Amino acid sequence: MWWLACGAMAAVGSYVLAAGRDDGAGGTREVVARLKGIPALRRAREREAGACAVAACERQMPEMLDILALGLSAGLSFDASLELYCSGSDDELAQRLLATMRGWQMGLEGRREALEGLAARVSAPSLVRFCASVSEALSFGAPLAQTLERQADAIREEQRVSVEQRIEEVPVRMLVPLGTLVVPAMLLAILGPLLCAALGG
């Protein structure tokens, strides 16, 4: 089905270029605006944005957990430790955590409900585990610093294993372009002169 997608993209590109030639920059902008309004493209953009947010949060989780564990070990409260992380970072995870914390500080919802809502919106596995651990620890008064440290170590190990798996998959993925592009070109370069000489002789 990839060739259908390529054909559709080529047709859309040709249409956009034609509109740009006919109506100038305004026509191109109008076509692009209409394309953005297509439900399928809009859903695809939303899925891509969601996947990027999940990946960003997963990458930033170990650092956040380390800072929270450090703050809790130093005697800070959970809110103060979270404020410490959010004030020193401007990444995706910090912004989402800051907005969530402002919600329960203003009394819009409880801490547990706010964390559960954040976990449901982002759906990053490590963030879901973090929110569940925090809600449980704060509800029952259990120590949280060591739990967060263990979670940070576990996430780093998962990320290391994931990187190793992607590295191992690289040679397999290279077989397709190697077999379809490089090998035929090499055969043509080697056998081409021989065939020409044989036919000419």
From TrEMBL:
The chain crosses the membrane at residues 174-199. It is found in: Cell membrane. It is a multi-pass membrane protein. It holds the Pfam family T2SSF. GO terms for cellular component: plasma membrane. Keywords: Cell membrane, Membrane, Transmembrane, Transmembrane helix. This is Type II secretion system protein GspF domain-containing protein. It comes from Parolsenella catena. The lineage of its organism: Bacteria, Bacillati, Actinomycetota, Coriobacteriia, Coriobacteriales.
